[in-house]
Structure formats: structure tokens, C-alpha cells
Amino acid sequence: MPLSKKQKENIVEKLKEKVVRQKAMVFVSIEGLKAKELSELRKKLKQEDCSIQIAKKTLVDIVFKQRKFDFAFKKTEGQPALIFSFSDEISPAKITYQFVAANQKLKILGGFFNQQFRGAEEIVTLANIPSKQELLTKVVWGIKAPISSFVNVLETNIKGLINVLAKAKT
């Protein structure tokens, strides 16, 4: 059953709101995806403050033209959906990439990061970047390593001195 003009206007308004709030968007094709699989994806996205929106290509194009995004959504293949992230720029790419690895029916089409369109290859590259927590851990280990090494060197010298004094005593 076709959507009424009022329903289409409501969808466009919701899309506008999400596009304004988003920090990143990933476009996927959900053609062939079962409802249960889509529900799993929604749950994973919700845990990371992300959401998925399925809408007609023409309605998405209207929103993109109003926001001056340079992407023709009508030309995408299959039944597209938009995945929005409202807190972290990388999380939608990571979640989508992990889901694609487990379910070949979902296809990454591209996305928007820093108000620029990125192709599917760039989305996959972004998905493989370590998380913020992992990067912070590496920085802390990098800072800690020289200090730990210095302490170990000093400790070794003191132990050596104690061993020499102990042997000299006997």
C-alpha cells in the first residue's frame, strides 16, 4: 500500500532530524536480509547509540538535497538503509562490518564521515581501525614502557651490587 503524503512528510522530518544529529552514517543494502537478522543488527546498533532507518530512495534524496550532501541515493542498488551514529564516528562502520562478516546478505554501499561521502572500501578501512579504548591503552603502554625499563635497569644494578657485597663478605 502506498504511503500518504503526510506519512512521507513524517518520514522526511525524522530523517532530517537524524541526519542533523548524526556524527556518521553508513549506507547498506538490506535486500535478502530476513527480519530476524535485521532485528539482531538493530539490537547491536542500539547498544552503541546507533540506529538504522529504512526509507524510500526518493525520500532520502530529498533530505540529502536539503542538507546539501553530494550523493545520489536513487542510484544505489537493492533496498538501502541508513545507519546513524549519534556518539561515535567509527562504531556504525565497525558494527556493520562485523555483521557483514557473519551475514553475506548485507552489503556496505558507503557512508558519510566529516560531511564527505566515503566509498565501501573506505568504510571497511574505518571499521578496521582500533577502537578509542584500544588506542588509549596502546598510548598508556607506550608511555609506561620506558619508565618500566628504567626501573628494571636500576633494580638490576642494585641487585648486582648487593650480590657483589654479599660475596665479598664471605
Task: Give a brief outline of the structure.
The protein is of the alpha+beta class and 170 residues long. It has 6 helices and 5 strands. Helices cover 58% and strands 16% of the residues.
Strand line-up across the major sheet: 2-3-1-4-5
- Helix- and strand-based class? alpha+beta
Instruction: Give the overall pLDDT as a whole number.
Output: 83
Total DSSP E strands: 5
Q: Any idea what the radius of gyration is?
A: 26 Å
Tally of discrete structural domains = 2
**SS summary, helix count:** 6
Enumerate the spans where pLDDT stays under 50 for 5 or more consecutive residues: none
Question: What summary fits the major beta sheet?
Answer: 5 strands, antiparallel
Q: Between the first and last Cα atoms, what is the distance in angstroms?
A: 99 Å
Report on this model:
With 170 residues, the chain is of the alpha+beta class. It has 2 domains: 5-127, 2-Layer Sandwich (Alpha-Beta Plaits), CATH 3.30.70.1730; 130-170. It is 58% helix and 16% strand. It has 6 helices and 5 strands; from the N terminus they run αβαβαβαββαα. It has helices at 5-21, 35-47, 57-67, 91-102, 120-127, 132-169, and strands at 24-29, 50-54, 80-85, 107-113, 116-119. It has a 5-stranded antiparallel sheet, with helices on both faces. A hairpin with a 2-residue loop joins strand 4 (107-113) and strand 5 (116-119). The protein is elongated and about 100 Å long. The model has no long low-confidence stretch (mean pLDDT 83).
